[in-house]
Amino acid sequence: MGTRFLTLCVFTVVQLVHLFFLSIMGQFVVNSNEEIFQRINESQWYNGPLKVQSLYVLVLRKCLNPPMITGGGLIPLNLDSFVQ
Fold this sequence. Notes:
Layout: H1 2-42, H2 50-64, E1 70-71, E2 75-76, H3 79-83
Antiparallel strand pairs: 1-2
């Protein structure tokens, strides 16, 4: 029983570490999206040519629905969901 229990404990810890690294990658995607949104908002994009303004508006709209790495399409993999 001792060896089997130890194997199960090691497997569980390794899986939690793996899930943690996946969550870090998901958090990186979320942070990058938020950073792009903030940088565009802080710039003076509205003073540029009309064509450039329309391109910035498209990027800003895309940032409103951020891409997420999910587990099975059900659970978002980020640090918030990892902590819960």
